[in-house]
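User: Here's a chain of 273 residues. Predict its fold as tokens.
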Amino acid sequence: MQNNTIVSKTQLNDSVWKMVIYNPELSHKHQAGQFVIIHAHENAERIPLTIADTNKTDDTFTIIIQTIGDSTKEIAAMNEGDIIKDIAGPLGTPTHIEKVGTVVVVGGGVGVAPLYPIAHGFKNAGNTVIAILGGRNEQYIILREEFTSLCSSVLYTTDDGSLGERGVVTNALETLINTQKIDLVVSAGPVIMMKFVSQLTKQYAIPTMVSLNPIMIDGTGMCGSCRVSVGNETKFTCTDGPEFDGHLVNYDELMQRLTMYADHKCRINLKTK
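Assistant: Prediction complete.
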């Protein structure tokens, strides 16, 4: 089989797809927390995507794609047997994993994807792992079976109450904090969600890691588009991260930077020639 061949494709909801891709070298080198940059075809944009899982026996890795813009729609339109032109990775600093006790992973939307290999790593290190997964409604909470088989317990929150508790992930997290000792929280998802998770855990002095998702272009730190302020220092998410101390991140600055690209008139369209 040729490298970067799409082995399987599964639609998870109306805007999210899971793809399993054949690449022996990448699947064997990947560590939790890392990502890839995908260049689907000659005239495509290069976009970063989280590695959601790997299978070293089958020499494959898994990505989760949410169809938001043209580039993600192009990738989601590819089918089993198609070959992705270029994949760079694994990129980013791997998650620091050790035995700490009880680890709670908190994810929202497609932010659940990077948490799965992280949760797997902490479980393998001998920790008790609990997951809190949130979404707009039941269909937007992905990878439920995977987390159920991995974690000691999984709590759900939805905006409409269609699955689990009606409300936000911080409500479930605070309830959990008040019922047992938590040694570490790891969060990934919308920036506003990570901000409130970090504010909550700071009140209880619980160490917290967040996986950030700013605009990335080259994946090497050279362009500077993914810079974030962490503890009054400038960091580059693609090389220094994507994970940082959640209590030190300047979330307001990060959210402001993300809005710079919200208007299609000011999007940067960098394509490999």
